[in-house]
Specification:
The chain is of the alpha+beta class and 99 residues long. The protein has one domain: Alpha-Beta Plaits. Helix content is 29%, strand content 22%. The protein has helices at 3-16, 32-37, 43-46, 73-77; strands spanning 18-21, 28-30, 52-55, 60-63, 83-85, 93-96. A two-stranded antiparallel ribbon has the order 1-6. It has a two-stranded antiparallel sheet with strand order 2-5. A hairpin with a 4-residue loop joins strand 3 (52-55) and strand 4. The two termini are 24 Å apart.
Length: 99
C-alpha cells in the first residue's frame, strides 16, 4: 500500500465515524452564475468530504450538503467568494465521534 493509499484509507476510516443529521434545506448556497465562470472549481477538490461535484454536461454544481463536515474550507478557498455558507439549523449537521 502506498503512502497516498494509506492516507486516503485513514481519511475514509475517520469519515466513517462521522454522524450526520441532514436538514431538509442546504446550508451551502453557492452563486450558480459565479460557478459558471469559475475556472478552478476548487470546491470540488478542497472539500475533505467530497460535497461538491461539477456536472460538466449540465454546467452546474452538484452539492451533497448532507455530508458536509462544516469545516468551511469551501468558502475560504472559493476563488469567487460566492458560497453563502452557514451552520445547519438546531440539531442538524455533523456530530464527530471520538475513537
Amino acid at each position: 500500500m502506498t503512502d497516498k493509499e494509506k492516507k486516503q484509507s485513514s481519511i475514509d476510516d475517520k469519515l466513517f465515524k462521522v454522524k450526520y443529521v441532514s436538514d431538509e434545506e442546504s446550508h451551502l448556497k453557492p452563486d450558480a452564475i459565479q460557478c459558471l465562470v469559475c475556472k478552478s472549481k476548487v470546491c470540488t477538490y478542497i472539500c475533505p468530504a467530497n460535497v461538491y461535484e461539477w456536472d460538466e454536461e449540465n454546467k452546474r454544481l452538484i452539492i451533497g450538503y448532507e455530508n458536509c463536515l462544516e469545516c468551511g474550507a469551501c468558502r475560504i478557498a472559493c476563488e469567487k467568494k460566492c458560497i453563502d455558507w452557514a451552520y445547519p439549523k438546531g440539531t442538524k449537521g455533523v456530530t464527530f465521534k471520538h475513537g
